[in-house]
Amino acid sequence: MVPADEVVAADEAVEAAVPLLEPRDGVPPVIETVADLERVIDAFAAGTGPVAVDAERASGYRYGQRAYLIQLRRRGAGSALIDPVALPDLSELGDVLADTEMVLHAANQDLPCLAEVGIVPNRLFDTELAGRLLGHPRVGLGSMVENVLGYVLEKGYSAADWSTRPLPEDWLRYAVLDVELLVELRDALYAELTASGKLDWALEEFAAILTTPPKPPRTDPWRRTSGIHRVRNRRALAVVREVWMTRDKIAQERDLSPGRVLQDAAIVELALSSPKTPTELQALPTMRGRGARRHQTAWLRAVSKARGLPDRALPESNLPGDGPPPAHRWAERDPEAAKRLAAAKAVVAALADEHTMPTENLLQPDSVRRLSWSPPDDLTPEAIADVLRELGARPWQINLVAKPLAKAFVRLECKGDL
Predict the structure, then answer these.
(1) Residue 71's beta-bridge partner residues?
(2) What percent of the chain clears pLDDT 90, i.e. is strictly above it?
(3) What residues pair up with 52 in beta bridges, in sequence order?
(4) CA distance to 96, 186, 199, 210, per residue, from 130 (Å)
(5) End-to-end CA distance of the chain
(6) Which end of the chain is more exposed for a tag (fewer CB within 10 A), N or C?
(7) Which are the contacts of 106, defined by CB distance < 8 A and separation ≥ 6?
(8) Predicted structure pTM score
(9) Do residues 72 and 31 touch, judged by C-beta distance below 8 A?
(10) Whole-number mean pLDDT of the chain?
(11) How many helices (H) and strands (E) does the chain have?
């Protein structure tokens, strides 16, 4: 929890914040040619200190999460805006900057699309994650810049369709300002981390972001359809699956966000009603939009395919998980595990409060659940540490939580509660 006096101080800082309306060097032209890119590479190679990096995507408009604009800034080089559509291979720039510390805000969001064009950092500073470890009450870029540096960034274009060409001047100004003060923010947070004794923790976290392999593709991604909980039989689930896969194929072909082809609510409604004719389909409330009707033949074909599947080909109602069951079932299925979970949550919450950070940054909730469900036979700090290490916890986290968790579990056992 953030102390009340810190919240007041932050609010006062916001009131005194100065609007940042123009980049100090103006809005640079968008780099779209190899010749202009070579000049940017030379300039950034000659620059000094960390390089601020940001990327703009077209989430909700286009299929996938590719970058449609990349912004950079470095002392001695100024700011640059690069069009990765016109220049899809930025590996030469990536090579030049590979050993330079790259400063990103919420790095996990941008690193995949940067890697697609050849920009893969070896050193990272994540200003959002630093803010979380320091206990800042608001860690969005705008809030961090206001509360730490005293400037107000322009808002309003983060959710824009960045695949638009040409990009409007106002959008480009917004994009440049996103990296205008990112290195200065990094420097201020670095000083805070050092003063609070959390710098080594942050460095471990940044390294983990770079070294943790990407998650494998989801099994049956169609099961993430919003509202699928309303679908209660396997035949209807098959309709969800077939329509979802049809939508995904169309979305890829048209390079559109799947939700712009057909909304999740429409998929669920098709599963529940299973229309057989265009008239029945068009009568559904979620199928009255132009986008939904444009591919009505494809939707009907998908529904028909699901309807005709043999029972053995229908999806199971639930997939077996690789982890513990939902926590709300623990008290009935394993009361001892439920008590361990309650004790572990209390330990982690108390330590997170002591060190002024969110509990999930001290230890991932999934790790707390897995440890509580399947603890080691030997409830020693060393054994707890081994389990947490296998679950991906960093050394600084293990050093803080292993001993208190072991004590909590042993205390339950000694009381005869386990």
Answers:
(1) 54, 81
(2) 87
(3) 73, 103
(4) 26, 9, 9, 15
(5) 31
(6) N
(7) 126, 128, 129, 141
(8) 0.91
(9) no
(10) 94
(11) 21, 8
Backbone angles phi, psi at 387, to 5 degrees: -65, -45
Distances (CA, A) of 295 to 15, 164, 185, 262: 51, 25, 48, 9
Token pair of 217 as six digits = 């593709």
Can you give the residue ranges of every domain in the chain? 4-211, 221-313, 327-414
Judge if 4-211 and 327-414 fold alike in CATH terms. no
Q: Please say if the pLDDT value at position 403 is more than 80.
A: yes
The DSSP-derived string for 228-263 is GGG--SHHHHHHHHHHHHHHHHHHHHHT--HHHHS-
Q: Is 203 exposed, middle or buried (0-12, 13-18, 19+ CB in 10 A)?
A: middle
CA distance 155 to 143: 11
Distance CA 67, CA 81 (A): 12
Residue pLDDT, tens place only, 31-47: 999 999 999 999 999 99
Integer Cα distance of 292 and 273 in angstroms: 16
Q: Residue 312 corresponds to which amino acid?
A: R
The CATH number of the structural domain formed by 221-313 is: 1.10.150.80
Alpha-carbon span 133 to 377, nearest angstrom: 32
- What residues pair up with 79 in beta bridges, in sequence order? 73
DSSP 76: T
CB proximity list for 287: less than 8 A, separation 6 or greater: 266, 269, 270, 281, 293, 296, 299
Q: What share of the chain is helix, strand, coil (3-state, %, to 5)?
A: 55, 10, 35
Q: What is the DSSP string of 281-322?
A: HHTSGGG-SHHHHHTHHHHHHHHHHHHTS-GGGSPPSSPPPS
CATH number of the 327-414 domain: 1.10.150.80
| CATH of segment(s) 4-211 | 3.30.420.10
For 212-256, the pLDDT digits (tens) are 888 888 889 999 999 999 999 999 999 999 999 999 999 999 999
- What is the 8-class DSSP label of residue 345? H
